[in-house]
Amino acid sequence: AGPSVEQPPPQQPSHPPTDWEELLRDRSNKLAPDDRVRVQQFFEQRYNPTPEQPLYKMKIHEQRGRDPVSGQEFKETFYLELDYQTFTSKQSKKVKRY
Questions:
Q1: CB neighbours of 7 closer than 8 A, spacing ≥ 6?
Q2: Looking at the predicted structure, is the pLDDT value of residue 7 above 80?
Q3: Tell me: the pLDDT tens digits for 30-74?
Q4: Cα separation of 18 and 21, whole Å?
Q5: What is the pLDDT of residue 8?
Q6: CB burial of residue 98 (10 Å; 0-12, 13-18, 19+)
Q7: pLDDT, tens only, 26-39
Q8: 30 with 60: CB under 8 angstroms?
């Protein structure tokens, strides 16, 4: 028998997280559990749980901060809109200053 060569362990098939998976992981502190499922169904299965509603907009994230220049406090609210006719999504943001 020849010299034994250690085989590297088989690689687990892993894919880099998609944009929507990163979004759910990193910016979703206001996402309702039902909406989280809806987003997964939209991107993975192109499934619409509410067929009578071709557009669905949800609040997904909120963060507060302070403008470094003016010192003014603000709140950013992020929204995700799912378009079931074209299966495209778009994000929007609303900033409220105090």
A1: none
A2: no
A3: 999 999 999 999 999 999 999 999 999 999 999 999 999 999 999
A4: 5
A5: 55
A6: exposed
A7: 999 999 999 999 99
A8: yes
Tokens of 1: 């028998």
The amino acid that residue 26 corresponds to is D
Both tokens of residue 14? 């892993």
The C-alpha atoms of residue 61 and residue 49 are separated, in whole angstroms, by 22
| Euclidean distance between CA atoms 58 and 31, whole angstroms | 8
Q: Which tokens is 32 given?
A: 């309702």
DSSP letters spanning 16-57: PPPHHHHHHHHS-TT--HHHHHHHHHHHHH---S-TT-SEEE
* Distance, CA of 59 to CA of 39 (rounded, Å): 12
Span 81-85, average pLDDT: 98
